[in-house]
Amino acid sequence: MTLSELLSKANATPISIHGDTQVPITGIQHNSKEISPGDLFVCCFGSKTDGHLYITEACEKGASAVVVTEVVSVEEEALHCCRALVIVEDTNSILPRLAASFFGHPSKRLSVVGITGTNGKTTTTHLVKSVFEAMGSKSGMLGTLGYCIDEDNKLEAVNTTPDALTIQRLMAEMARNRADAIVMEASSHGLELGRCDEIDFDVAVFTNLTRDHLDFHVTEERYRESKVKLFDKMIDPDKHRKVVNIDDPNASYFIARGNADVPLVTFGMDSENCEVRPLGLEISLFGTKLLISTPKGVVEINSALVGRYNVYNILAAVSVGIAVGGN
């Protein structure tokens, strides 16, 4: 793929381009330490450093082209060390589009479940993966405890929600491994920073919302608004599904986002006005026994998980199964 072709596929409109737009692009990186010959180096702003400081290093390692942000003053030496220089308004916002286009938008070939909320994301993600496997679907997973491409290929997690480039690369690998679905934690940081911008989610799950991460979001309103970005993606009634914990005081806020016509599955323990709820519950030191009412009938579950909070996680996972057409 040439630089020109990649920019076209990503619907990117650079402010200006200098050099050879037909230069081949064989990879994308935003970390100069990982550059290989032929890569496109996207100079992103990080929490600790600025990729624009490493243009010369990237070019010396063989980067074919460099993408920089308009407002950044780049050393003259750095401007002339690469075969092509692309100037854009914001490198951080264009990275997800470049990455998704380079890897062929792998999320469009997978059934993608995104799980957001303050608590329960990690456990629910693992439970939903088990639901898919019980339905006979091969699934991958991205979350706090690791990135699972398949049962034989698991990576340590750097972030709950990986950066946009890593997400697209891992999803492409899962698609190549013939995965049917992927379950991932959609953290407030990941949603706010645009890491999930080019992911074609099929199901959005809301677990609960409590006060958290105000060092980053500053206010509870901004924290909630970052979480609800996942539900803003639920716009196609034929494809998308919403799954919401109806007992949470913020439930209506999440339900209202996106398209109101998108099918909704609600779960809870305190309300009888939900599709998925326990009819019988027994919690002991040894596990949890549940009889769950669902639109598809009553489900009996025996789990080693204990605690009321894990009952909610189980209900969320069952709700996803209902949402995607499981029995």
Structural class: alpha/beta
Tell me, what is the CATH class of the largest domain?
Alpha Beta
**Which stretches of 5+ consecutive residues score pLDDT under 50?**
none
Strand content: 15-25%
Cα shape: elongated
CATH superfamily of the largest domain: Mur-like, catalytic domain
Major sheet characteristics: 8 strands, mixed
Fraction of residues in helix = 25-40%
Strand order of the largest sheet: 9-8-7-10-6-11-12-13
Question: What is the tally of helical segments?
Answer: 11
Got a strand count?
16
**H/E element order:** HEEEHEHEHEHEEEHEHEHHEHEEEEH
Q: How large is the radius of gyration? A: 22 Å
In the CATH hierarchy, the third-tier topology of the largest domain is known as: UDP-N-acetylmuramoyl-L-alanine:D-glutamate ligase
Termini separation (Å)?
43 Å
Number of domains: 2
Give the overall average pLDDT.
92
CATH architecture of the largest domain: 3-Layer(aba) Sandwich
Protein name: UDP-N-acetylmuramoyl-L-alanyl-D-glutamate--2, 6-diaminopimelate ligase
GO molecular function, one term: ATP binding
InterPro entries: Mur-like_cat_sf (IPR036565), Mur_ligase_cen (IPR013221), Mur_ligase_N (IPR000713), MurE/MurF_N (IPR035911), UDP-N-AcMur-Glu-dNH2Pim_ligase (IPR005761)
Domain Mur ligase N-terminal catalytic: 25-102
Describe this structure as you would to a colleague:
With 327 residues, this protein is of the alpha/beta class. The chain folds into 2 domains: 3-102, MurE/MurF, N-terminal domain (Udp-n-acetylmuramoylalanyl-d-glutamate--2,6- Diaminopimelate Ligase, Chain: A, domain 1, 3-Layer(aba) Sandwich), CATH 3.40.1390.10; 106-266, Mur-like, catalytic domain (UDP-N-acetylmuramoyl-L-alanine:D-glutamate ligase), CATH 3.40.1190.10. The chain is 31% helix and 25% strand. It has helices at 3-9, 55-60, 76-79, 91-102, 121-134, 164-176, 188-192, 214-217, 220-232, 251-256, 308-323, and strands at 16-19, 27-29, 39-42, 65-69, 84-88, 111-116, 139-143, 146-150, 153-155, 181-185, 203-206, 241-245, 264-267, 277-284, 287-294, 297-303. An 8-stranded mixed beta sheet has the order 9-8-7-10-6-11-12-13, sandwiched between helices. The chain has a 5-stranded mixed beta sheet with strand order 1-5-4-3-2. It has a 3-stranded antiparallel beta sheet with strand order 14-15-16. The chain is elongated and about 70 Å long. The mean pLDDT is 92. It comes from Ananas comosus var. bracteatus (red pineapple). It holds the Pfam family Mur_ligase_M.
